[in-house]
């Protein structure tokens, strides 16, 4: 049963059917005593339906997701024909202002859920997001990007064995669906415990807005809203069938130096394919980094300088693949 009843109270304010309001989550001040406000944009239809949350910027430097949610607002896609749409374009305002992943206390907000009312600054934000926002939500999509210079191909991450999430991931229709276990302390884990189905979108890299990634994210939202019968858009974007990836891991640098990427991001590669070459500044060596087995390249480190042990490529693993010693099983960062 939908949580979208006639009476909806959020952050202490009542939003009636047909109303739109911008509310503010105020939990802290800057050292200048200026209040820090997180805008929460709520749009309700007069017709009943699901309540859906679209959130981004839980890591302040992952701005692709912020742009996706911004476009939902400016294109009025957040105004439903039925139900309620909640948009939080930037959860981690501190990190966004400082172009940083973390909170000022050095904590990763996506590792401290469910948080604590009297805990660290990041923990308090996590606590109030769960206490004030999530209880009214039926479905959620949280938008992320790759950390540092690691560029994620557009993908939806879900836990394996959940038919409802798998169906929603296919409706969203990003190029890839990656089975990824929930991470302790993450927003996605907290949502699962609260019985709120959440899709986690990954695309692009930090401090970068990529038009193709944004286009993919916005179109995925349009498809979801039509699937939930919250909107009746005539021109629903058509997408190809998503490729399901059940296992994945990282190929790491075996030397430090310049990294010369060969451009296989998002593509299927054969075992032995040279993904990049690492060279030193003095012309002493050239080291080829090869794919240890067949798989899709779903993340590429686009940094020009890398260190030995750095994660270079996130590669899918087929069930029959033999994993070599240079390959480490890892679901990746979110």
Automatic annotation (TrEMBL):
SUPFAM superfamilies: Zn-dependent exopeptidases (SSF53187). Its cofactor is Zn(2+). GO terms for molecular function: hydrolase activity, acting on carbon-nitrogen (but not peptide) bonds, in linear amides; hydrolase activity, acting on ester bonds; metal ion binding. Residues 48-226 form the Succinylglutamate desuccinylase/Aspartoacylase catalytic domain. The keyword Metal-binding applies. Pfam families: AstE_AspA_cat. CDD domains: M14_ASTE_ASPA-like. InterPro entries: AstE_AspA_cat (IPR055438), N-alpha-Ac-DABA-like (IPR043795), N-alpha-Ac-DABA_deacetylase (IPR053138). Keywords: Hydrolase, Metal-binding, Zinc. This is Succinylglutamate desuccinylase. It comes from Flavobacterium aurantiibacter.
């Amino acid at each position: 049963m939908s949580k979208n009843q006639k009476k909806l109270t959020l952050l202490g304010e009542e939003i009636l059917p047909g109303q739109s309001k911008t509310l503010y989550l105020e939990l802290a001040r800057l050292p200048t005593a200026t209040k820090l406000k997180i805008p929460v944009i709520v749009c309700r239809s007069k017709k009943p339906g699901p309540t859906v949350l679209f959130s981004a910027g839980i890591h302040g430097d992952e701005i692709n997701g912020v742009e996706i949610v911004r476009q939902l607002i400016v294109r009025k896609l957040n105004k439903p024909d039925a139900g309620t749409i909640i948009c939080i374009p930037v959860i981690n305002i501190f990190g966004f202002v400082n172009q940083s992943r973390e909170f000022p206390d050095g904590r990763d907000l996506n590792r401290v859920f469910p948080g604590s009312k009297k805990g660290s600054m990041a923990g308090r934000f996590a606590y109030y997001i769960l206490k004030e926002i999530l209880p009214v939500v039926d479905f959620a999509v949280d938008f992320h990007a790759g950390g540092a210079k690691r560029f994620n191909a557009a993908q939806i991450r879900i836990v394996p064995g959940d038919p409802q999430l798998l169906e929603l991931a296919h409706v969203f229709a990003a190029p890839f669906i990656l089975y990824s276990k929930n991470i302790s302390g993450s927003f996605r884990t907290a949502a699962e415990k609260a019985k709120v189905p959440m899709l986690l979108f990954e695309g692009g890299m930090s401090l970068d807005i990529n038009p193709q990634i944004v286009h993919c994210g916005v179109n995925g939202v349009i498809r979801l809203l039509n699937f939930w019968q919250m909107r009746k858009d005539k021109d629903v974007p058509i997408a190809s069938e998503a490729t399901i990836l059940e296992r994945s891991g990282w190929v790491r640098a075996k030397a430090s130096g310049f990294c010369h990427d060969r451009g296989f991001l998002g593509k299927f590669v054969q075992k032995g394919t040279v993904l990049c070459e690492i060279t030193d500044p003095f012309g002493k060596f050239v080291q080829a980094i090869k794919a240890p087995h067949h798989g899709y390249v779903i993340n590429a480190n686009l940094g020009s300088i890398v260190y030995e042990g750095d994660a270079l490529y996130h590669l899918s693993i087929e069930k029959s693949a033999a994993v070599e010693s240079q390959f480490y099983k890892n679901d990746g960062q979110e």
